[in-house]
Amino acid sequence: MPAPKRTHPRTLDLLAFLAVLATGIVLLLIGVPPNSLAIVVVAMGGLYGAWLGIGRGD
Question: Does the pTM exceed 0.90?
Fold first, then answer.
């Protein structure tokens, strides 16, 4: 089965990664408990996967 084609540049992947990283750091600095942060990170990862189209079954 051929690999899916990428429809967006790698620069957007880098920007998304940096945005998630910065968000996590800011949340830690303002005092969000780590277990709550884990829930946020999982949700953000799911949104990123949906943005990439992973798991659509195409």
Answer: no
